[in-house]
Design brief:
alpha+beta, Deoxyribonuclease I, Chain A, 6-stranded mixed beta sheet, 7 helices, 14 strands
Amino acid sequence: MKRVTIASFNVKNLIGAEKEYYKFQIYTREEHAWKEAWLADQIVTMDADVVGFQEIFEEKALRDVIAEADEMGAESNEDVIPDQSKRYRKRAIFRKLSYTGYRDAALAFAPNANDGAAGHRRPGVAILSRFGFEGTPEIIQELPEPLDIPFQDMGGDDGGHYRISRLSRPILKARVPMGRDVVTVFNCHLKSKLGEFVRPEGAEFAPESDLANYDPVGRALGSARAALRRMAEAWVLRSHIVAELHAGRPVIVMGDFNDSEHAVSSEIIAGEVPFKNYSWMLRHNAKASNDRYSREENERIQEAIGAVRLHSAEKLFVKKSLRDMVFTSAFGGVYESIDQIYMSRHFVPEAGGTLGEMEYFSVLNDHLTDGSHPEAPYNKLASDHGQIMVHLALGEE
């Protein structure tokens, strides 16, 4: 049995010191040192084999954090791990306390095609893998052809279309040797819920961004635009997921979905949840009230849906542990999970998987506050997301 840990980590705006990433926002050298140390400490705590990072502005800044984590981990090992002369050195507790490190790990970074000048930077994503990569990781952001999503007017006429030609942030796709197979890992950071406001030609700013002249209807439309973009990006990701599954490859999807598990965008990524039985359902071309799918068709439909469906690690954990809440984000008194790890059925024995199974699911969220806690102003240097980890037990290679 081979044990593997997979983690997702939104680091919150990682960039070098004294560099303006968003307008008027920088880290002083002291703030950057604090943030780097905090991130490194979280990496040591996770000690995951594969980590998907979000909100990375510069590859070097991430490499510096990983290097500091390795220094911290080596010092910890020196303090708490017995040397070879100790007869008790193989006890399970020391396996849990030891830090493996990333000296020989592979790192893939996907910069954001929308990145701009100082004050107008846009973050990318990265994947860190102790198992290396098979082939060259792929960046998905610029679409080969613009994606036009057609709409039909409720009266039956042409309802126009919604178009995207580039994602707001890159999706990083990497094939990672894992156990006896190669797993396709996707790391994503979908469009946030922040509204998209259109700036009129020649104007200094979009009218909706002027809060002194609050426009509730205009701002609601901005939220609608953001939701449309997020769902379109989810569909792009879904199309790549299905291509991998149809090719017979196991899939793990991780990242900041900017939506909960039951949101439409998350359901697009995961795929449909099948009905228990389609034999009672009217056929798509029914000519009579009893013209329903046959039992044989039901089995084919069940398999067609199940073969390309992803399973939420968090949901599997909650079901297994009887816990009722996991959260990775806290804002204004609202605690929710917007960071996710999804797995294809290869890792879910009850769905027919034989590659392995999830033994445990961890979330590091003690640092999160909802903005009302007295310490909240000082938490700007930590991440505003919890880190999530899936602990897998894989079959022998």
